[in-house]
Write a structure and sequence with these properties.
Blueprint: H1 8-22, H2 33-41
Length: 44
C-alpha cells in the first residue's frame, strides 16, 4: 500500500489550520454563517 504525499498547497493549508487551532485569538469568529457571509460580501 502506498501513501499519497500532500502537495505544497495542501501542506500550507494544514499549517495554517494548525496555527488557527493554536492561536484562535488571532482570527475572527462568527456567531452564524449569515454574519460571516455579510462580513465577506458586505451588506447586499
Amino acid at each position: 500500500m502506498t501513501r499519497e504525499v500532500p502537495n505544497k498547497i495542501t501542506l500550507e493549508a494544514m499549517k495554517e489550520a494548525q496555527e488557527m487551532f493554536r492561536s484562535p485569538e488571532k482570527y475572527k469568529k462568527y456567531d452564524s454563517v449569515d454574519s460571516m457571509m455579510e462580513d465577506i460580501l458586505g451588506e447586499v
